[in-house]
Amino acid sequence: MRFIKTTEAEGHVICHDIVQIIKGVNKDTIFRKGHVVCKEDIPVLLSVGKDNLYVWEKDDTMYHEDEAAQILYDMCKNDFMKPSEVKEGKIDVIADADGYFKVDIGRLLEVNSLGEMMIATRHSGFPVKKGDKLAGTRIIPLIIEKVKMEKAKRTAGTKPLLEIKPFLHKKVGIITTGNEVLYGRIKDTFGPVIREKLAEYDVDVIGQRIIGDNPRDISDGINEFLSEGANMVICTGGMSVDPDDTTPTAIKDTGAKIISYGAPVLPGAMFLMAYTKENIPIMGLPGCVMYSKRTIFDLVLPRVMSDEPVTKEWLSSLGHGGLCLACEICLFPNCGFGK
Question: Start and end of every MoaB/Mog domain (predicted)?
Answer without folding.
Answer: 173-306
